[in-house]
Amino acid sequence: MFSYTILLLLTTIPTSFSAIVDPTEAIHRFLTYEETNEFLHTLALLFSGKVSVEKIGETALGRDINVININYNAKKKVILVANLHAREWAAMSSALYIISELVYNGDQYPELSQFRWMIIPMANPDGYEYTRIYDRYWSKNRSPQPNSRTFGVDLNGNFGYKWDENKYRVDPSSRTYNGPSAFSERESSAIGQLLNQHADNTILYVDMHTFGNHIFYPWGYTTDQAPDSGKSRAVAIVGADIIREKYHEYYTVGTPAHLFQRTYGSSLDYCHSVGINVCLWFELTNVGFQIKESDIERFGQEAWAAITAMAVRANQIVDVFYPE
After folding, report:
1. Strand partners, 116
2. Cα 208–210–211 angle (5° rounding)?
3. Where is the signal peptide (predicted)?
């Protein structure tokens, strides 16, 4: 329910916006790319004292890659990225749920207000729109590939750490095609630059995906233990525990190389390589890529419970190892 102040603010919104301000709009149906951007910009207008929206890049088809900053004056940062894989709609809707909760109900969570939340709810807008209109199970972006009639790169295989360790050539027509070079794609390049820019003050990075009920920590490219990976593992366990306690869903915790398969050029490994405190890859839900709109809120609540608990735990760890 809106306050009278917010209702007054609605009258100041430019007519170019469709005024998707009711948080239930973002948590009860799947928004389009345009609606998502309108929602973010409207929040920035209504809550200008704590919310801003920043364009960090542009896709091959000219769509904006936007990050919303909540509590933008806070020093310690939490970075969330969703929808690197186009078909994983529940990751995007869960990110929007988290945004809505932080903005509209943030005063109820004082322990979260000490963080600057930097959230990219739609990291692959070209691919997402393609799944809405043409192919629901499309995963890659939609960049035309050189010397090929194919389109798209697996963005979670295009980051610039151990990208070239994969000795098996991947055909450009494959769903897992990792691109002609590391950071060849505008989306992965923009996110990589963001991680580099904010590495020193970021306590937690979460790459949100579906599906499988897993929380991965580094490394993905090898079964060898990553330096300081014990911190990420400890934080991931907190997330898995709270989901089990509140929602009776069981999440496994481990590295991609142990629980799934070796993955090269992932955002997870790149995050760890630039020295961010805790880096995680979160596979939400166990029901597949398609969820009913009636389940958006349920999975959003699971993501909210896990990610906020993991942010608090990551902050406790960073205060121990790197006191101010």
Report:
1. 77
2. 140
3. 1-18
Torsion of CA 108, 112, 117, 119, to 10 degrees: -60
Are 317 and 229 in contact, with CB atoms under 8 Å apart?
no
Q: Which two tokens stand for residue 133?
A: 């209109």
Whether the model clears a pTM of 0.70, i.e. scores above it, the answer is yes
**Which has more pLDDT, 279 or 169?**
279
The three-class DSSP label of residue 20 is coil
Break the chain into its structural domains and give their ranges.
24-318
- Report how far residue 320's alpha carbon sits from residue 53's, in angstroms, rounded to the nearest whole number: 32
At 79 the three-state DSSP class reads strand
CA-CA distance, 166 to 172, in Å (whole number)?
Answer: 15
Q: What are phi and psi of 56, to 5 degrees?
A: -105, -5
Q: Which residues are catalytic?
A: 283
d(CA 198, CA 150): 34
CB-based contact 75:116 (threshold 8 Å): yes
DSSP state of 67: E
Q: Which of 102, 204, 87, 90 is nearest to 156 (CA)?
A: 87
Which two structure tokens, joined as six digits, stand for 295? 């389940």
pLDDT at 14 over 60: no
Q: Which residue has the tokens 């005063």?
A: 107
CA 51/CA 40 separation, integer angstroms: 9
Q: What mean pLDDT is reported for the chain? A: 91
Contact 207, 232 (CB under 8 A): no
CB of 263 closer than 8 Å to CB of 219: no
308 Cα distance to chain centroid: 14
- Which tokens in the block code for residue 240? 């898995």
